[in-house]
TrEMBL record, chain B:
This is ATP-binding protein. Belongs to the GPN-loop GTPase family. The keyword Nucleotide-binding applies. Signal peptide: none annotated. It comes from Promicromonospora citrea. It holds the Pfam family ATP_bind_1. One of its GO terms (molecular function) is ATP binding. InterPro entries: Gliding_Motility_GTPase, Gpn, P-loop_NTPase. Keywords: ATP-binding, GTP-binding, Hydrolase, Nucleotide-binding. The keyword Ribonucleoprotein does not apply.
Length: 117, 203
């Protein structure tokens, strides 16, 4: 076994997702923006990691940021986020389809923004 | 008992409530070419690191690897709120051969990729450029990161050595300098705008 790049987590990661490796939706990307739905607090049975995740998302963050702060792989956080969206605790903030490329109008706005930096 | 997570996201790390759209670019390049430096120069947050697990089974070209193994790849990334409603994410993508399978997934939805090269080790970039063209259709711009001891080659010589298409932009950059890093992103987005795939308006 290649131990050099292997790093274990205190909790076996896939315990957090009941062993699932794939999210219930396939529109989540590392850059997808998510945010907690404040009117839907977690039940008392929620796991500690779910609590931490929803707490993090009280402001808008990208999936990759959530993963970085939780120190968990992006693919695993995608499974958790997907479940929390299904349960109404999180919402996707980005108002676009994940598979749709940005159009010319968006690129122009980005260019304008970059030129002002 | 929620202090741990509050500490991790100090206020100000969240995006502004007006941000409703995210767009990404992939910062591609060989190991040590300055990807994280470039990301750090322009990012409004301290660059973050995520890990992704990938199965190297399908690669099968690393003689030292057993048939099936999972490995962890670290990706550094940063973000810029470019307008009040758009956040631009920059993902540093490792250039090593065993990570190439990761690219097609990451490239999905990306505006493009600044490909960073180091003229002291230009040969490290040949395969990265080939694979980027082979595995993705995303626009890219070549960014020659100027290290203090980089030989001063004219850009046209670097272009010829890398066998770039005439329309592929190539720019010099000091990845440590914010304005210089921003200019590479401007070059990339301007180039992306010439691609038919980005022509339609979807506001």
């Amino acid at each position: 076994m290649d131990t050099e790049e292997y790093r274990d987590h205190p909790v076996r990661s896939y315990v957090l997702t009941s062993g699932r490796a794939h999210p219930s939706r396939n529109t989540l990307r590392p850059e997808t923006l998510v945010r907690a739905v404040e009117s839907r607090p977690l039940l008392s049975t929620a796991s500690r990691m779910e609590r931490e995740l929803v707490q993090l998302c009280r402001g808008t963050l990208a999936l990759a940021e959530v993963a970085a702060y939780l120190q968990l792989p992006v693919s695993l956080v995608a499974v958790m986020v997907s479940d929390l969206i299904d349960a109404g605790h999180l919402a996707i903030r980005s108002n676009h389809q994940a598979h749709v490329l940005p159009g010319k109008d968006i690129l122009e706005k980005i260019l304008d923004g970059l030129r002002k930096l | 008992m929620d202090s741990a997570s509050s500490d991790r996201t100090a206020s100000g790390q969240h995006l502004a409530p007006t941000v409703a759209r995210s767009v990404k670019v992939l910062v591609v390049g060989a190991f040590g070419v300055g990807k994280t430096t470039l990301i750090g120069s322009v990012s409004e947050i301290e660059p973050l690191r995520t890990e992704e697990r990938i199965t190297t089974a399908s690669v099968g070209i690393d003689p030292g690897q057993p048939n099936k193994d999972t490995t962890t790849v670290a990706m550094d990334f940063g973000r810029i709120t470019v307008t009040e409603d758009i956040a631009l994410y920059l993902f540093g993508t490792p250039g090593q051969r065993r990570f190439w399978d990761l690219w097609s997934g990451l490239a999905d939805g990306a505006v493009g990729a600044p490909v960073m090269v180091d003229t002291r080790h230009l040969e490290d970039s040949f395969e990265v450029l080939d694979q980027l063209e082979l595995r993705t259709k995303i626009p890219f711009a070549v960014v020659v990161n100027q290290f203090p001891d980089s030989p001063a080659y004219p850009l046209e010589r670097v272009r010829a050595a890398l066998d770039l298409l005439p329309e592929t932009p190539i720019v010099e950059c000091d990845a440590r300098d914010r304005q210089s890093a921003v200019l590479t992103l401007i070059t990339l987005v301007e180039h992306a705008m010439t691609f038919p795939v980005f022509q339609k308006v979807n506001a």
